[in-house]
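Good day; I would like, with your permission, to put a structural problem before you. A protein sequence and the structure tokens that stand for its backbone fold form the material at issue. I would ask you to consider whether the tokens describe a fold that such a sequence might reasonably adopt. I set the record out below, with my sincere thanks for your time.
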Amino acid sequence: MLTPKKSKYRKAFKGKIHGVAKRGSTVSFGTYGLKALRPERITARQIEAARRAITRHIRRIGKVWIRIFPHVPVSSKPAEVRMGSGKGNPEYQICRVKPGMILFELDGVLPEVAEEAFQLAAAKLPIPTKFVKRIG
């Protein structure tokens, strides 16, 4: 699973996801991409599940790029704990995804295979996505 090696702060604010993606919105490395259509928080587990789905479907032919990284810690308190006594410990990492952001890229496979692989990956993610091709 993806986790940062070190971070500046142990705990982070929840934050809001405003606007559309300015950068990371075009297919840069591969030929095909999976684009996010709605703002959402995606966990490291969901990214890993989607990556596995893609890799298994393409049978390790071609190359996969993961364009997002979960570097925001999410803290939570244990079940049935009274209110107060501070913020909970970091439990998992998330990535804040804006609409228009490319999540995964793929190269070296047929377009039909890439589209099927991205459909399988999209089923593992909590947001609606769109299959895109590189222009030019």
User: Anything to note?
Assistant: The mean pLDDT is 96. Residues 44-57 form the longest helix (14 residues). The chain is about 20% helix and 30% strand. The radius of gyration is 17 Å.
